[in-house]
Each structure stands twice: as structure tokens, then as C-alpha cells.
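Internal tracking record. Fields below are filled automatically when a chain is submitted to the structure queue. Please do not edit lines marked as system-generated. If the sequence contains nonstandard residues, flag them in the REMARKS field before resubmitting.
Queue: standard
Priority: normal
Entity type: single polypeptide chain
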Amino acid sequence: MSNPGKSLTVTTRWWWIRHAPVREDNGCIYGQKDLGCDTTDRVVFEAVGKILPRNAIWYASNLKRTHQTANAIWAAGFPKPSDMPHVNAFAEQHLGQWQGMNRAAFLASRPIGSSHWFAAIDELPPGGESFMDLYSRTCGAIERINAEQAGRDVIVVAHGGTIRAAVGLALGGQPEKGLAFDIDNCSVTRLDHLSSANHTGWRLPMVNQQPWIADASHNAMHQPAGPEVEPPSTKLG
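SYSTEM-GENERATED OUTPUT FOLLOWS
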């Protein structure tokens, strides 16, 4: 029996995929430079496709490495969607004059901080934008899509900085906290937006999941916990 006094919660599930590795950067910072990526490892893209929902709405940034990554997932057997809008707001941080500099040498020259990024969230690279600029535009696009696609599965192929910004939003609007997370190439991050008449918020089911490193010996780790579950014979201890 339904409870008319109970508020309906609408869950919009975001599946963020970081693009495949860039090999043509020559060890340099690329930011918003429109470089291609390496999509030759079909096993990786098959594994990513197996954990993604069907009938989802797809988006990508305007940079071609995200389009190439999406195409590799579809080529590995995932049903190709009818459309995948390119959203400029989901592009990587524009790192201005730092783009093209040797990455290792640049990072070695920077102060040691608590985050794993090129600079503090409010530092403006010469000719570029700060991480807070990236965060603000990413959040604006997320809010728009949450309204347009409420209750749907949303898949976005994007970038390490963009996904960290989304994680920071899900952590209660704390962009600096998002920078503490590793976001590996081709990894999947799931963030659920919850909305009701009285509340909006987020939960983080998984961050930086890399499904291609799993194998059958780890199946028990993905089963629900509880007394109704038969302990697998392979369980240790």
C-alpha cells in the first residue's frame, strides 16, 4: 500500500568515464589541446561496456579524445546511442601557457600540496582558467542535465579534471575534496543525484572503478551482503 504522505525521490544516475590514454602529448601538459587517444585495447572497452546501463543518455566533451573513447566502447559491443551531444562545459581545464610544458618538470617545480593537480583550485594559469572556473561550468551543466533528464541514467565521457569537479560537487560542493581522488584513464565513476520535494543531495556508489582488472575469482566481492546470501565456496578465512 502506497504512502501518500511519503515524498517521491527521483534518482538521476551519472556514469562518468575518463577518456583513454593520450600517447601523442610527448610528456607535456595538454589541458584543452585537442589530442587523440589510444583505443587499441579492446578488452578495456568491453569491460567498461559491461557495467554501463543500456537506454542511457550519452554526452561527451567537445574534445575528440572523448568521442574516440565512446566510439571504442561501442565498437567493443555496447549498443551505440542515437545521439551524443558534445558539451563544451565538460571540457578539461584550460591550462593556458602551461599547455605544452613538460609535465614532470612542471610538477617538480610546484609546491608540494595536499591535492593531486596542477595548482590550487583558485590559481589562474597565464592565459587559462582556474580549477574553480572548471568547477563552476561543470556544475552548471550538471544542474541543467539533472533538470532535463531527471530519473534517467546519464553517461558522460569526459576528463580527469571534469570528473574531479563532479566528485567535489557530490561531496557537498567542496571542489578541493574532489582533487584528492585519482581518476584513471577509462575508469568509471558513478554519482547519483537524489531529489525530492524536500531535499536534494548526492551519493557516491563508486569512484575510479576499473572493471577490466576484475576476474571470476573476485565475483563474491560483488554480491549483496546479508544472511540470505550463501557464502561462496571460494571465500577465504
